[in-house]
Amino acid sequence: MSDDAEDAAAGDAFDRVVARVRERVLPDEAERAEMERVAGEVVERAEAAVADRDVEADVVRVGSTARGTWLSGDRDLDVFVRFPPDLDRADLERYGLEVGHAVLPDGHEEYAEHPYVKGVVDGFDVDLVPCYRLDDATDIRSAVDRTPFHTRYLAEQLDDDLAADVVVAKAFLKGIGAYGSDLRTRGFSGYLTELLVLEYGGFRPLVAAAADEWHPPVRFDPEGHGDASFDDPLVVVDPTDPERNVAAVCSAAAVGRLLHYARDLLAEPREELFEPGSRAPEPLDADAVRAVVADRGTHPVAVRFTTPDIVEDQLYPQLDRSLAGLRDELDRRGFEPVRADRFAQAPDAVDDGEPVAALLVECAVAERPAVERHEGPPVGVREHAEGFYDEYVDDPDVYGPFLDGDRYVVERPREVRTPAKLATTELFDCSLGPHVEASLEDGYDVLAGDEIAALATPFGRELAAYFDPSP
Hints:
By secondary structure, the chain is α+β, with helices and mostly antiparallel strands. It has helices at residues 3-25, 29-51, 64-67, 89-103, 147-157, 160-175, 190-200, 203-212, 252-267, 286-296, 312-332, 382-392, 419-425, 434-441, 456-467; strands spanning 58-62, 76-83, 108-111, 115-121, 124-132, 218-220, 234-238, 241-245, 299-306, 337-344, 356-363, 371-378, 399-404, 407-413, 445-448.
């Protein structure tokens, strides 16, 4: 078969896969009609609640359901109540909550940059969010004020075919584990995905460009704003706000994941890549964890503690900071970390007992010698050299002082010889997230070597992914 024929065959296979995926992930007419019915009811309730109060405001639908870019099965509905820009912030919050509770009487309050009400209407998860009604996105008072501008911009740009390709792109990014702007995933947001599909004119051109043309850092500027500088692996200048990178939260790993799987999809088109969890490994039990630790010949150490009761977007940055602090200290002490990861049960995911979290660092060195080398100043620097010599000359626990070249040197007892000892005695000397540190102060366990098999419950699947890593 010639190269052209092979390319044509691959293209046909790609199109067939995408067609099947599109049929599965696009909401059908009944699902769209139900979404429209519930959305209309929520907007009507919100408008009535505003009319009952001594304030001017309008109600708008925003997000993917307003733009026709939502995945079948998603039941998230975002409705914003826009208040005049001269309204005091405290009054905006008060009126916003009043309207929210009127629309969602069984709802509860959550907090982003300001409080809003979240509830359920006929099986749909509804966010009723107050914001300011502004003429320009550059005048925003909080991040949510941008959202109506995003909806308006994309409504003017996306036709039905592009909207359908956006849904396919979201399914692909979900399938490869790169979709979501939460601080656990640090992947592609819905708005970012929409802008990228719009930039390339479809899903396939986006995949082809990511596979062959992207060499991070990658920059796009849809409206030619041109001035702002960003230091991120992917930059998409917000068409409605030239000072903002829509992809700021998107990590280098998420961008790399898109590049890897774009090439994989083009080389071997298959629906599996659009199915979240399809490549998830089977959980490891305790015996399997012990076996793989023995096979690797490394020395893992884990710190297990109660998961702090905070939202995920606070929790995971603190876990990441704490893991980096522990890993860096183990590295500084010569235990040569090979790899590290963090796991956490959500506070609401446990029926009985406390949810747990763990920091895991796999080290190449299990034990350091009983002594460590400590160099002093050159002998020629008399004041400091004599001070160093006098400090150690009568110390019965050190070897030396002796000369190594022109310097005094001693070999003194090493305070921390194992990773477990460091985690047990010097954990609070590491850089830790404040809520993680507070949880650790209430108590924690240190597991070393094959003792980490105790993490198989509840983290068997996470350990399976750790010990069988993939892009």
